Amino acid sequence: MRILIVTPLLPPEPGGPSYYAVHLKDELLVQGHKVETVAFREVRKYPSGIRHLLLFFKILRRTWGTDGMIVLDTVSVALPAVFAGCILRKKIILRVGGDFVWERYIERTGESVLLSEFYKKKIQLTKKEKFLIYLQKNIIFPLATKIVFNTDWQRHVWYMPYGIDVSKSTVIANAFQRKDGKHAGDKCTFLFCGRDIILKNKRGLSSAFKIVQKNYSQTNLEVLENVPQEVFFEKIKKVHALVVPSVSEVNPNIVFEALSMGLPVLLTKDCGAKDILGDSVTWIDPLDPEDIAQKMQELMNEENYKKAKEKAQTFSYTHSYIDIAEEFVSLLK
Fold first, then answer.
1. Which residues contact residue 185 at a Cβ distance below 8 angstroms, ignoring those fewer than 6 apart?
2. Which H/E stretch holds residue 37?
3. Which of 18, 208, 266, 316 could crosslink 292 through cysteines, CB 3.0-4.6 Å?
4. pLDDT per position as a tens digit, 227-239
């Protein structure tokens, strides 16, 4: 098959869609398909509106002669992609990665609202946020051939507010395979990895860490922001545990990467991967610094830590990019 991948990001740009696009393309090529990519960065330097129009023509040209496209975003590249696909009558597989409106609301207001509760609350959205919901609900999603979520949890969160057609939606889980490498560990160091934005809850973690240091003054909190994957992989071999205190996480790749090295993880309880992760991680309340601190302190106990590490090391879930590529091809067929 001839396939076009439309993505908001490509390496060296960090971010989930960036690595996802590369790994998916590589595996599709291995399976004998012809694959091209088009990324938002090709037009990012132009003013808003103009860049979307330019992207539309780029997608239109590269979609010609393909069997269909895989779109790794529902906002920045989705509108020009679905228009181009519909004009050329191509199949459009639209992958939902995160929730742009929810993320934008949190960063704008500073209010930590769980994603699982966001669309149930009566909140004051801006005209732009309302327009983005309208655009996805009434234009982008109806024009897509299939809508792919990476967790069933988010699919259910979106059903009502976005009017998702059940028959058009499916789930393709993120990739996970155990990696070669062992976790040596540093009993004093906890690791936080993520952008310094409100939804990642670095502020809540900092408050929790101050509580921890009152009882364990030797502990350290190491922060990584916008680092290449290989830097993160090396770092998780050397720390005591990974802490992911985000307000919510749909399907956090870094958690799976940490578990692949046998590293204990503390993770926000508002998470779409709960059914997969089970008790392999320690669940924390992201809105309660005292709960985060308590769970961190529990991992300072040798017996508790040994149990947490055993659970991480025996995490057996597997889903490869071979599986993901085959699932996307099945949808395109």
1. 238, 239, 240, 263
2. strand 34-39
3. 208
4. 777 888 888 889 9
